[in-house]
Amino acid sequence: MAVYTDVTDEELESFVADYDIGDVLSCKGIAEGVENSNFLLVTDRGQYILTLYEKRVHEADLPFFLGLLEHLAERGIACPQPIPGRDGHALRRLAGRPAVIVTFLSGMWPRRIVPRHCAALGRAMARLHLAGRDFPLHRPNALGPEAWRPLFERCLAGAPGAGSDMLSPDLKDGVARELDVLETAWPADLPSGVIHADLFPDNVFFHHEALTGLIDFYFACNDFLAYDLAICLNAWCFEPDGAFNVTKARLLIRDYGAERPLEPAEIAALPILARGSAMRFLLTRLYDWLNHPEGAFVRPKDPMEYWRKLRFHQRVEGPGAYGLTS
To answer: Taking the model in full, what pTM does it have?
Structure first.
């Protein structure tokens, strides 16, 4: 989340008048994240999140995202719910952008991740995957393996600008070689379904030790279920000093498997899936670093964090590195 589009008081007042959520008391931009413009909207009836969709979120995909939130909530997944306007439509426009108001989830994301957070995440992610099995809409992963090489080429083409020092010869050569490996070794037939695809710690809320909700479903898509697990290995199981915490990984995968048992092929594929997920976030962060919009009060995230994670997974010889056996 971030703020890229400013909303005037007059625009906000006119927009909220189309809802039955009370009078606006305050509307404050949320500076975390990098994808959309988000605001904490407070009315005399409660708190809400106002989102204006930017950048990678295509308006044609919004019925999938909003429908998925409703589908998951009906099956017991704690996630934000779109609020319809007086005309029954949740998706609207504000300040020239597609916009929606969703319910506010209580809780806080964990600033210091401990093993119990990873265990709770594993259970919640598996339940999400199970709840999404009968969701009728389908959305391909727009940032899957087919997108990585074109995205890398766009990074290279835009390199002469600010931030181009990030693209060292070692990084360029290493990414090119890794793309060759991933395109050859990527699995072809693993259990698939709806995945979140962006379950970073700031998208998972806790109250004390209890997981209270999942947010920010705007990368959700259909892909290998185990790829979601691999994304979380990267996002949750590395320490601030870059060391991989095998205890966190073991609990994440163990508690996921308690809800949805993993097939042997999924376990065997985890190392290559983890390399792929590291590549995906390395490239999107690198692109954002090279194309950081002026005026956004959010600093782009460090691409090199995911280069270091990728290098770790390149040295992995099998799922035993994650505390498992194939």
So the answer is: 0.91
